[in-house]
Amino acid sequence: RILRVVKFRRTGESSRSDEDVVSGEHEIQIEGVRTELEPVELEDGAAVPKEFANPTDDTFMVEDAVEAIGFGKFQWKLSVITGLAWASNYAMEMMILSILAPQLHCEWRLPSWQVALLTSVVFVGMMSSSTLWGNISDQYGRKTGLKISVLWTLYYGILSGFAPVYSWILVLRGLVGFGIGGVPQSVTLYAEFLPMKARAKCILLIEVFWAIGTVFEVLLAVLVMPTLGWRWLLILSALPLLLFAVLCFWLPESARYDVLSGNQEKAIATLKRIATENGAPMPLGKLIISRQEDRGKMKDLFTPHFRWTTLLLWFIWFSNAFSYYGLVLLTTEFFQAGDVCSISSRRKEVKAKCSLTCEYLKEEDYTDLLWTTLSEFPGVLVTLWIIDRIGRKKTMALSFFVFSFCSLLLFLCVGRNVLTVLLFIARAFISGGFQAAYVYTPEVYPTATRALGLGTCSGMARVGALITPFIAQVMLESSVYLTLVVYSGCCLLAAVASCFLPIETKGRGLQESSHREWGQEMVGRGSHSPGVTRSNSGSQE
């Protein structure tokens, strides 16, 4: 008979060749340390060799197990479910804003400020809840926070379709925004199951589901709006959330969270489930438990190790949303004017019109919405190509710099074709930079504060989204060039902030606990001397 034993030590990256799989031998490359799964022939009555007498003397952490098990069937399923949350709970509900506003403007004869408030109230809800959902996810689990936020959004999303008057729909859409604020926690859960090599690419590819969600929402509007109206659009747009809520029962809780909350058995069961689904070996040994009761506290984001990182990330996320949504609003204004130089005269004409003048969305408008959405794909592809080559910090800095440069080029009185190219390049890079921030933020914070860190950053992004209409629409009436200077200057400062981030997370494992030695985290998992096995102190059977 054959006995397979894993002498497990700290894991960096795992690799497995096809020949290894065929021959039954598996080799794990661990930052210069090689350990083997060697088949040992045992005759009846023969003694087990001394070096294999107690293979469980070694210890491992969740990060080691995730790296050893690798990317497989489980992560593919998780990718689809996370993408469904991103498409249904985020992209579709946000895309409704651009479709619902002009419809209610005409049907209920709303003045312009009330139409604008319909959009703003959603961002207010998101801003006020992002930190709360992060705290819930750190205190009670990622899966718990995500399920509650999805069910919340589903409930109030359907109720929005029955709103009798403006005040009701304003309150209900604000509550929908409150639920949407918990969607970024799907990225936290997703990232904690991904091995180091696949993490950046997988999180970036979630942006594809954003595009799918927005395209689906526009197509749904084309079919529903002419016949059933906006109420049925709101109800039908919320139904995909029901599918995600059902699939949530398949989702496991994060093993990293279980370890931090002291639930070793549940963490091991989750890791075994992943190993079984991926057809990979489960490492032997004792899973280290670093229980931490004090989780999800705001003060942990401002410890000496994370203070500057938190402040710089808040500004980076603010700048991302401020610039992204500002560009979306400016694109409409520029296209309607024809070029930048004509916009001032057009503004004067529009000012004289009655604020109740309205136009229903036409087929051409829906086509423009589709093309605008598709412009983000190049940004994802560029970011996907460079983020593991030049690092997270430089990717964000490059994205902000290109956006700032394109904004300055708009000072020139270019024709519509050149204007379109500049706006598409700017949008491609700012959307790519946004996704790079989604990669970096879960990587830089430890498990104890990861959800809260991402939640507060998402909240700061909503502040930027709230402010940007006053720049892209109100300030634009006074000066086109001052408006462009504000966006260009903000992104230039954000590029500098990206360069000054203290930690580069490229090739760095996720931190399990904020109580671990800082120097060890800074140098990464490769800092351990080859051949040195961790002590069993602090581990539990």
Automatic annotation (TrEMBL):
Major facilitator superfamily (MFS) profile domain: residues covered: 79-506
Region (Disordered): 512-541
Keywords: Cytoplasmic vesicle, Membrane, Synapse, Transmembrane, Transmembrane helix, Transport
Localization in the cell: Cytoplasmic vesicle, Secretory vesicle, Synaptic vesicle membrane
Entry's Gene Ontology molecular function annotations: transmembrane transporter activity
Keyword Cell cycle: no
Transmembrane segments: 78-101, 113-136, 148-169, 203-224, 230-251, 305-325, 395-412, 418-440, 452-472, 484-503
UniProt xrefs under InterPro entries: MFS, MFS_dom, MFS_sugar_transport-like, MFS_trans_sf, Sugar_transporter_CS, SVOP-like_MFS_dom
Sequence similarity: Belongs to the major facilitator superfamily.
Protein name: Synaptic vesicle 2-related protein
Species of origin: Rynchops niger (Black skimmer)
Lineage, opening ranks: Eukaryota, Metazoa, Chordata, Craniata, Vertebrata
